[in-house]
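Reviewer 2 asked us to include a model.

Predict the structure of this chain.
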Amino acid sequence: MIVFDLHCENGHRFEGWFGSSADFDSQRERGLVDCPECGSKTVGKAPMAPAVGAKGNQVSEPTAGKEAQLSNAPMPPEVEKALKQLAKAQAKALEKSTWVGEKFADEARSQHYGEKDEAPIHGKATRKEAEDLAAEGISVAPILFPIAEPDKLN
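Predicted model (structure tokens):
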């Protein structure tokens, strides 16, 4: 089962449980998905943040004694369109790039200093490693959208 945050055309936000994304699409197309608050059948997926727990060595600091509240408004269409375009651009850029995993900083330096031929690479680097690379004049850029590591794909 998969849980989607959904919203209707009137801005009501709610959860829906489906067997898959295709099940959601199928049920919505058949008019089986509606808003529990107003009954609207114009329902879409709302933006969702992944459920990622804090690192064990991190302490959450409350903001003036309150937790931050996220908006429950639907994402504006122009923002959704821009995010989709960015995701497509990232996917296209990564098509010809080689995953180097935890060795990203070493591989980037090897290419920069001529020890290896230059080729597009992507992988993991700590913030400190990325800052050090930039300080050395080595171009680096963050990956904007999460990707699955090749060895962790089904």
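The radius of gyration is 21 Å. The helical segments are 21-29, 77-95, 104-112, 127-135. We have added this to the supplementary material.
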